[in-house]
Amino acid sequence: MDRKWAALNLTKPSALRGEEELHLLGWNVPPEELIHIPEHWLTYQEPPASVNYLLGLLYIFFFFASIIGNGLVIWIFSSAKTLRTPSNMFVVNLAICDFMMMLKAPIFIYNSFNRGFATGHFGCQIFAFMGSLSGIGAGATNACIAYDRYTTIAKPFDGKMTSTKALVMIIAVWMYTLPWGVLPLLEFWGRFVPEGYLTSCTFDYLTKTFDNQMYVGVIFTFSYVLPMSLIIYYYGQIVSHVISHEKTLREQAKKMNVDSLRSNQNQQSQSVEIRIAKAAITVCFMFVASWTPYAVLALIGAFGDTSLLTPGVTMIPACACKFVACIDPYVYAISHPRYRMELQKKLPWLAIKESCGDDSTSTTTESTAATTPATPAAPAAT
Question: Where does the signal peptide begin and end (predicted)?
Fold first, then answer.
């Protein structure tokens, strides 16, 4: 507590930048709120006002990009009869998770423009709780999407997805996700605390107690390792299946002394094998690239050298996670012809100009699974 009071009162009047005194983080936090802030952050100098303002502006961009993009995905996929398929139920659920991920952005924006812990403990709990549900829910939903793509391609007759099965899986996703948000919210196991510049909140990965380290290890396993492993496994199986299928076709064509058994192969710019491989690699790369830094950050905080975790460093992985939640809906817009056609019908002023011919090979998510799996988002509260 002495260190926290020191952080509250300590300034450095001898080190001035213009007319502004340099404070330590937490200097403007009421004493009753200091108990909720890990002491680690209170030892760092407050960033220049321009850094907080820049982050606030960045999150304003993230907020509108995500709300508009994911809002359109939820609206179009839910209202268009041609898109109301069992597989697309997962797409809608993922868009809901991404929508929720950035719905809490106004808390961060308000904190940033007030340079700190302005919304207090209550705002912190709302921010972290919504981030936990949306992040872990998105990771689990992406695992379901990977499973659906795998069964559609590798087992087209045995693995047909039904609306009932999809609904049960979505309910299971939220039942799986809810405890990871409720437990730290009630401080039954773990807790939600500010991080970085005290403008965002997440689960406590800095407290060096056995219970808290166990919590970090468990949530790391079930919200990151498990969904990532399933995604990589199923997309790896898709690539393996397609490669094997293409090899069989080539061997059969060779025996029949023909160039190919595919009548339209010469009209395609890429073989199915290449397209599936690229899509699978992209999906895995996006998931790993966006969430691995944050997962590593949490492990360092719980089990490693916490001096590596400066406030500025921790803001970078958090921004990367939010960025993925923003670009997901635009990936759908690029890769899904039927979605673009529905957008063209409902919002003609967008001037999308999608022709019906582009949709000849993709009228549902099931048929497009071989070419464009959805990009995953991810699994932790940030």
Answer: none
Q: Is residue 320 part of a domain?
A: yes
pLDDT string in tens for the chain (382-residue length)? 444 444 444 444 444 444 456 788 888 888 888 999 999 999 999 999 999 999 999 999 999 999 998 998 899 888 888 888 888 899 899 899 999 999 999 999 999 999 989 999 999 999 999 999 999 998 899 899 888 888 887 777 666 788 899 999 999 999 999 999 999 999 999 999 999 999 999 999 999 899 999 999 999 999 999 998 998 898 888 888 877 777 777 777 677 766 655 555 444 444 545 555 565 566 667 777 788 888 999 999 999 999 899 999 999 888 888 888 888 777 766 667 777 788 888 777 766 666 654 444 444 444 443 334 444 444 444 4
Q: Domain count for the chain, please give it.
A: 1
Identify the CATH number of the domain in which residue 209 sits.
1.20.1070.10
Give Cα 206 distance to the centre of its chain.
22
Q: Are 71 and 333 in contact (CB under 8 A)?
A: no
